[in-house]
Each structure stands twice: as C-alpha cells, then as structure tokens.
Write a structure and sequence with these properties.
The protein is mostly helical. The protein has a domain at 26-76. Helices cover 52% and strands 10% of the residues. Helix 1 runs antiparallel to helix 2 and helix 4 (131-143) runs antiparallel to helix 5. It is rod-shaped.
Length: 172
C-alpha cells in the first residue's frame, strides 16, 4: 500500500554529524483520543453525581474508545533517525527496528566506514597533483570533522613540503 524508493547516495553527500532523532505521532488519532477522553470524563462525573441519564454501557463504550485511540497512537508512534544529505534530502532510518542496539550499531558503522572512505579518498597527498585542490579537500575533511586538528596540520605540512628532511628548499 505504500511506495518506496531505492537510491544510491555517495558518502560525500551524507552528513553524519547532524543526525536527527525524532518521534512522530499521528495528530488526528491523538485528537480523537482526547475528544473521547473528555466526553468520557464529563459523563463519568455526571453519572457519579446522579446528574445524567446516560447508562453505564455508554460510559464504558466511551472509555473503550479512549483506550483504543491511545493504543493506536502508541502503535503508530514512529521513532526515526534522519540523516541529512548535501542535496537537501534525508535518509530515513526506523529507530529501534529490529532493535535499538542494531540501529545504533548501524549508524556507528556507517559513520566509521564513511570516515575511512573519505579520509582515504580526499586525505591522500599526491605531489603530482596541484596543491590548491588537495588543500581544499583537506579543509573539507576538517570541516566535516573527519580529520582532527593534528591530522589536518600533519597532512597540510606534508602537502606543502614542510618538515620534509629530504626537501629543505622546496625542490624535488
């Protein structure tokens, strides 16, 4: 009854530093439950003080609708993990399915694998390529917190030829 899409998203597009955890509830079910709950309480109070001609069967029916609405709202509660992408999209992962530990492990594994891949792809120094794009890549990795300050400085110095004992004046 629902449709789904399968999309390939590159690691570069995933922003794992801004993971959003949220709970979604169908507001209509909550409103219906509150409606029946208020009617139930008013009629119960009136029945207790003998100011109403409503039968106990109607009060029990209203109570049943209130409880049923609450159960439906609870069952339909969606816990989601949303991971933003660079094209303003969101990766939607159902939190707690199959288990909370499994989803947390998946997010951790995705973060680890993404960082390793991006560090290898954009953090490698190649002296045959221009310096500017490589420096831009290093700064991008630092902004995404894939490289810490120390790693960034080491790679930047290596790229710029600093601290290289075999190359004291900058020639190869």
């Amino acid at each position: 009854m629902t449709s789904s899409q399968e999309v390939e998203i590159q690691f570069e597009e995933i922003n794992l530093k801004k993971v959003i955890r949220q709970k979604k509830v169908d507001i209509i079910i909550i409103v219906v439950g509150l409606f029946f709950g208020v009617i139930f309480l008013v009629n119960l109070i009136l029945k207790v003080f003998d100011k109403s001609d409503i039968t106990w069967g109607v009060i029990i029916l209203l109570f049943s609708f209130t409880v049923l609405s609450g159960l439906i709202a609870y069952v339909n509660l969606k816990r989601q993990i949303l991971i933003p992408t660079s094209n303003s999209g969101l990766l939607d992962i159902f939190d707690g399915r199959p288990t909370k530990e499994a989803t947390d492990n998946f997010i951790h594994y995705l973060t680890l694998r993404s960082n390793i891949y991006l560090k290898h792809k954009y953090g490698s120094i190649d002296r045959d390529l221009p310096i500017e794009p490589q420096l831009t890549n290093l700064m991008w990795l630092k902004e995404r917190e894939i490289l810490n300050e120390t790693e960034f400085e080491e790679l930047k110095n290596k790229l710029l030829g600093r601290n290289d004992k075999t190359n004291p004046i900058g020639f190869r």
